[in-house]
């Protein structure tokens, strides 16, 4: 969805809530939706898609990132996450690492608390992330 005006935090949370309707969660029954704001003002949404073995399940944040990246976006401003129970769910560690691949530590992560929105910086949720620099440093250490 593209718009000439930047969506508000509430707009992003509403988009994440709308994505909940598409979640496929026959095992956990725990719906999660995400809405990712790109630097050009586009919003991409995702929902969780479960699999019977759980490890092949897709997380809402991953789906939103994939939707944006597949059409050429790689710069993001904010992400909102909501669950069907509005419990302030934050991205899991795997999703935080995926976000860190594309985003700086200051990416705003908005978490739906129902009547309010909690906001975190990605670096606050995932300090000392693994990055290309981390891998390069490890390779240099192995050579020395």
Q: Can you walk through the features of this model?
A:
The protein contains five helices and five strands, in the order αββαβαββαα. It has helices at 9-19, 60-69, 93-102, 122-125, 132-143; strands at 32-38, 43-47, 76-83, 108-112, 117-121. A five-stranded mixed beta sheet has the order 2-1-3-4-5. The longest helix is centred in the last third of the chain and has 12 residues, at 132-143.
Write the layout of secondary structure elements.
Blueprint: H1 9-19, E1 32-38, E2 43-47, H2 60-69, E3 76-83, H3 93-102, E4 108-112, E5 117-121, H4 122-125, H5 132-143
Parallel strand pairs: 3-4
Antiparallel strand pairs: 1-2, 1-3, 4-5
Measured as a percent range, the helix fraction is 25-40%
| Number of E-type strands | 5
What's the alpha carbon Rg, rounded to whole Å? 16 Å
Largest sheet: 5 strands, mixed
Strand content: 15-25%
Order of strands, main sheet, comes to: 2-1-3-4-5
Write a short abstract of this structure.
The chain is built from five helices and five strands. It has helices at 9-19, 60-69, 93-102, 122-125, 132-143; strands spanning 32-38, 43-47, 76-83, 108-112, 117-121.
Short key terms for the protein model shown above:
single chain; alpha+beta; 5-stranded mixed sheet; 5 helices
């Amino acid at each position: 969805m593209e718009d000439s005006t930047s969506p508000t935090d509430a707009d992003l949370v509403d988009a994440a809530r709308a994505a909940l309707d598409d979640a496929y969660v026959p095992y956990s029954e725990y719906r999660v939706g995400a809405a990712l704001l790109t630097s050009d003002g586009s919003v991409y949404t995702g929902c969780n898609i479960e699999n019977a073995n759980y490890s092949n399940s897709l997380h809402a944040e991953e789906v939103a990132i994939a939707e944006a990246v597949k059409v050429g976006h790689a710069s993001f401003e904010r992400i909102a996450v909501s669950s069907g129970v509005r419990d302030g769910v934050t991205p899991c560690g795997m999703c935080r690492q995926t976000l860190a691949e594309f985003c700086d530590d200051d990416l705003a992560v908005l978490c739906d608390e129902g009547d309010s929105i909690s906001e975190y910086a990605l670096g606050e949720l995932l300090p000392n992330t693994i990055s290309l620099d981390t891998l390069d440093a490890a390779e240099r250490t192995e050579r020395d």
